[in-house]
Amino acid sequence: KPKIVTCTAPVNIAVIKYWGKRNEELILPINSSLSVTLHQDQLKTTTTVATSRSFQEDRIWLNGKEEDITHPRLQSCLREIRRLARKRRNDGDPSLDSTGLSHKVHICSVNNFPTAAGLASSAAGFACLVYTLARVFGVEGELSGIARQGSGSACRSMYGGFVQWIMGEKEDGKDSLAQQVEPQTHWPELRILVVVASAERKPVGSTSGMQTSVRTSCLLKHRAQSVVPERMVEMIDAVRRKDFPAFAELTMKDSNQFHATCLDTYPPIFYLSRVSHQVISLVHRYNKHYGETRVAYTFDAGPNAVIFTLEQHVPEFVQAVQHFFPPDTNGEDFIKGLPVSHAA
Ligand code: DP6
Question: I need a surface site. Which of 112, 227, 261, 289 has the fewest CB within 10 A?
Answer without folding.
Answer: 289
